[in-house]
Amino acid sequence: xxxxxxxxxxxxxxxxxxxxxxxxxxxxxxxxxxxxxxxxxxxxxxxxxxxxxxxxxxxxxxxxxxxxxxxxxxxxxxxxxxxxxxxxxxxxxxxxxxxxxxxxxxxxxxxxxxxxxxxxxxxxxxxxxxxxxxxxxxxxxxxxxxxxxxxxxxxxxxxxxxxxxxxxxxxxxxxxxxxxxxxxxxxxxxxxxxxxxxxxxxxxxxxxxxxxxxxxxxxxxxxxxxxxxxxxxxxxxxxxxxxxxxxxxxxxxxxxxxxxxxxxxxxxxxxxxxxxxxxxxxxxxxxxxxxxxxxxxxxxxxxxxxxxxxxxxxxxxxxxxxxxxxxxx
Length: 329
Ligand SMILES: C[S@@+](CC[C@H](N)C(=O)[O-])C[C@H]1O[C@@H](n2cnc3c(N)ncnc32)[C@H](O)[C@@H]1O
Fold this sequence. Notes:
Number of strands: 9
Number of domains: 2
Bound molecules: S-adenosylmethionine
CATH topology of the largest domain: Rossmann fold
Strand order of the largest sheet: 3-2-1-4-5-9-8
Structural class: alpha/beta
CATH class of the largest domain: Alpha Beta
Distance between the termini: 19 Å
Strand content: 5-15%
CATH superfamily of the largest domain: Vaccinia Virus protein VP39
Number of helices: 13
CATH architecture of the largest domain: 3-Layer(aba) Sandwich
Order of helices and strands: HEHEHEHEHHHHHHHEHEEEHE
Mean pLDDT: 93
């Protein structure tokens, strides 16, 4: 059997010709995604994070069919307009990919040739002041990707205990001043609710001084977004949920943007790509009951310098790919 290290590296696909910008969102690592998923006529893919439909359009352009998921109805509308020209080869469903299993079961879909997850928010969501994701725009403290959800950034900031807020900022934002920011928020909300992004920026700015190019509220905003949308929980459940629907030889490609997400994907693939597990207390290694993938990328693929210069958002993108093993007879 070939080891993952002998696999050709997926890299260098993101040149000029591969640039995919819909005016809604510029897709990251477009060439690398195509190289990893190998789309072609008669193949079926699930794009779990449709966004502006950029990656999906590359799969469709190669002749494949795509079922796109997104929990944001604006994304689905936008992608729908862009991709309707592919007729029945494109379908979309408004859903969180964490329940992918139920949705695919309901659609009667099995044995898909590939799954793509490009997690986090799109440029459009981030830039639209009204969505509350950005510390640069004043808007309601919302941050929901799915506007049907009852949990907003406003409800978290005004409703959670000081301890929980501190934990959110520390764990999801890796913010060293987490405890101080939480204490300041609790102090402010004794006199009034924090309702807008600028209310939060002001509270954060009063305890974190501006140092260097990064905005002082960057990590706090990231942490809140992760908490409001339960992004890490969705990723864990989504990865798991897609497994039974992948055909043998089908591939899963996952793009993440921060270390907490990448750690989840790395562990998920690692746990499933070792034929055996060994523990010091065991006399010998035992078969791994989760063994179901082989790694295609032994380390994550990053954007080339050329892509980063054109699309700065790709700077922190990491792509990991694994291939489903054939089902046991
Ligand atoms: C980075 S964008 C995807 C961009 C897309 N790949 C493209 O090329 O245009 C992420 C999208 O995934 C959606 N999303 C994020 N997490 C999701 C989840 N758990 N379930 C469904 N959609 C999700 C967001 O609403 C957003 O539209």
